[in-house]
Design goal:
With 205 residues, this protein is mainly alpha-helical. Helices cover 66% and strands 0% of the residues. The longest helix is centred in the N-terminal third of the chain and has 18 residues. The termini are far apart.
Length: 205
């Protein structure tokens, strides 16, 4: 019985493992103190990139033992470095590849960013329908920005996705009623519903 208890504890410890490097990567990226150090770090994109790369290596070395870990978010944040050129030359293809890995692991921000890549053709061929599919997956994980953006696509029609204002209304309504903390997305959706109401009486519910 004691052996089983120790084995269970060992499995939980492995599945909940998070490397210090992920949090340090965010500290240097945004000037935070998430890693538990005594002082808030000054922004340093080079150190942030190195820490996130270490977190990814740590995850990939142990991923067979993981159930979930914050380290998988490192793919998304490292992708931001390459997409926006934080301390390095912009590389949309590298950002796309990193977002793709994070998305496969179920990370909502990575799913959202991968959708953006397909929507605008960053690092890949533009495909708005694929973007919509990815936005929907991000929405399932509670990403409000995805609700706002998918509503925008349907409100005017983009690429291979036809305009459907009723569908846009449904997505924006869901976003506007959310109690989550992303106030920017909620405010955007509320404003769009207000504009829609002025043009369509059925949207004034």
């Amino acid at each position: 019985m004691k052996i089983l208890s120790l084995l269970f504890f060992f499995m939980i410890t492995l599945s909940a493992y998070n490397s210090h490097d992920y949090y340090e990567g965010l500290d240097y990226m945004y000037g935070y103190n998430m890693s538990g150090q005594n002082e808030t770090k000054q922004k340093n994109y080079t150190k942030s990139k190195l820490a996130l790369e270490k977190a990814i290596k740590s995850y990939e070395a142990r991923k067979k033992n993981y159930l979930y870990t914050d380290d998988i978010k490192s793919y998304f944040f490292l992708g931001l470095h390459y997409q926006y050129g934080y301390g390095i030359k912009k590389d949309y293809k590298k950002a796309f590849d990193l977002y793709s890995i994070g998305a496969k692991l179920g990370d909502a921000p990575a799913l959202f960013s991968l959708a953006e890549c397909y929507r605008f053709g960053y690092g890949t061929e533009k495909n708005v329908q694929t973007a919509v599919t990815l936005y929907k997956k991000a929405i399932e994980k509670g990403n409000l920005a995805a609700l706002a953006n998918i509503g925008k696509i349907y409100s005017r029609g983009e690429g291979n996705v036809k305009m459907n204002k009723i569908t846009a209304y449904k997505y924006w309504s869901k976003c506007a009623k959310s109690t989550e903390s992303n106030s920017a997305a909620i405010e955007f959706c509320q404003n769009q519903l207000s504009y829609m109401c002025k043009e369509n009486s059925w949207a004034c519910k």
